[in-house]
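Ligand-bound model needed. heme C.
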Amino acid sequence: MKCALCHGEDGKSDTPAGRQKGAPDLRTEEIQKLKDDELIRPIEKGHAGMAPIQSRLSNESKQLIVTYIRSLALKKAK
Ligand code: HEC
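Prediction:
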């Protein structure tokens, strides 16, 4: 997945590109408390170091991404 380039396989953003751009750890409570549309907004509009990716994403893909980001937090809780 393209997201993993900066955010890592596990969402921790502990990657060379993620550290360089200051990408946040997506597993944290701060990110997980955001609403679905707030998680999608940076993907649609771009967000500081993060380029907008929407033109290649269907609504179904966006929903899958939200579900995936949520699943990262569950792993941390274990
Ligand atoms: C080029 C590196 C890069 C890529 C690729 C990337 N991101 Fe990000 N992402 C960032 C950075 C940097 C931030 C922090 C931006 C900020 O806080 O202003 C961020 C922030 C976020 C946030 C938090 C937004 C918020 O409101 O705090 C989410 C959620 C996110 N990214 C999801 C994704 C998803 C899903 C993908 C794949 C579709 C993705 N990112 C691809 C660099 C990237």
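Residues 2-3, 5-7, 17, 21-24, 26, 31, 34, 38-39, 42-43, 47-50, 53, 65, 69 surround heme C (CB under 6 Å).
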